[in-house]
Design goal:
The protein is built from seven helices and seven strands; from the N terminus they run H-E-H-H-E-E-E-H-E-H-E-H-E-H. It is α/β, with parallel strands linked by helices and about 180 residues long.
């Protein structure tokens, strides 16, 4: 994907914003800038080796370990990772997980706005309309890549001819083992 973005849109820096499950690993945004994924993975693997871990915990932890490994790969590929701890809130007796990356993504755009002439936003979330409209009004070239059926109508309208439904990229960029 990163190679595609570099070739197609001349992207020089790609940020990846996501939530990460800490599984009890001690990390605070107030104390640390970047989460050490290698240390997190060691911690998660250590928990997996405990004798008192249940089968359900093994399944959940296994998924978290796979995601941590995925983030490590993204970092190796050249993405700038902005990972935030996942928090669990309860809503009507159901857990709701949130990492609140939207604020971080918006903050990063505003912080770096004078350092780029354009941006490729890969989100169809209507929450980004104000900041993306601001960028466009400031003369930044804006391309929006999102899944068309899930993108907010305001995002599609804002992108206009520069809105791209990236469903076609699945075939174009799929990994083939050689």
């Amino acid at each position: 994907m990163l190679e595609y973005l570099k070739e197609k849109y001349a992207v020089t820096k790609a940020f990846y914003f996501a939530g990460v499950e800490l599984d009890g690993y001690k990390y605070s945004l107030l104390d640390n800038d970047d989460l050490d994924l290698d240390e997190l993975l060691k911690f998660q693997l250590g928990k997996l080796r405990r004798k008192d871990i249940s089968e359900a915990e093994v399944v959940v932890l296994g998924k978290h370990i796979q995601k941590t490994k995925f983030y490590r790969k993204l970092r190796l590929f050249g993405y700038v990772l902005r990972l935030r701890p996942v928090k669990v809130y309860w809503n009507e007796d159901k857990p709701v997980k949130k990492a609140n990356c939207d604020v971080d993504m918006t903050f990063e755009m505003m912080l770096l706005k004078d350092k780029f002439g354009g941006l490729v936003a890969m989100s169809g979330d209507g929450d980004f309309v104000p900041v993306l409209k601001y960028m466009k009004d400031e003369g930044k070239k804006l391309v929006i890549l999102a899944r068309g059926e899930r993108a907010a109508k305001e995002i599609k309208r804002l992108g206009g001819k520069d809105f791209r439904d990236f469903g076609y990229l699945r075939e174009l960029l799929k990994y083939e083992d050689k």
